[in-house]
């Protein structure tokens, strides 16, 4: 499955730790991330990540395009709720295209465990 991993600046360390803790699950899937987040995940969790541009340079739009084309199966977007950015657009696209999305650590862990158990395999039927 195609998993997008996005994190606002003050959530990047949390994303690194999440990816390290769940490396055994994430390594079985194709990962996408904005530039800085992707590099941090590659360096610290030793995972292969396809990187978009930096979020503020068009990476969020690249992700949105993939979501619109049903090319992403799961989004983990650890975001700062006080920081306004393109997150509303990404969340709206996920809702519209019925793509599971997590915006906090608790939901991210639940979705990763569901992914590992095969509970998101229904996404394969949509291709």
Query: Which secondary-structure class do the elements indicate?
Result: alpha/beta
CATH H-level name... which superfamily? Methylglyoxal synthase-like domain
Low-pLDDT runs of 5+ residues are none
Q: What is the general shape?
A: globular
Query: Taking all residues together, what is the mean pLDDT?
Result: 91
| H-E order | EHHEHEHEHEH
Domain tally: 1
Our measurement of the CA-to-CA distance between the termini, rounded to an integer number of angstroms, reads 11 Å
Largest sheet: 5 strands, parallel
CATH topology, which one?
A: Rossmann fold
Residues in β-strands, percent: 15-25%
Radius of gyration: 13 Å
Structural write-up:
This protein has a single domain, classed as Rossmann fold. A five-stranded parallel β-sheet has the order 3-2-1-4-5, sandwiched between helices. The chain is globular. It has 127 residues and is α/β, with parallel strands linked by helices. It contains six helices and five strands. It has helices spanning 12-21, 23-26, 35-45, 59-68, 87-96, 105-117; strands at residues 2-7, 30-33, 49-51, 74-78, 101-102. The N and C termini lie close together (11 Å).
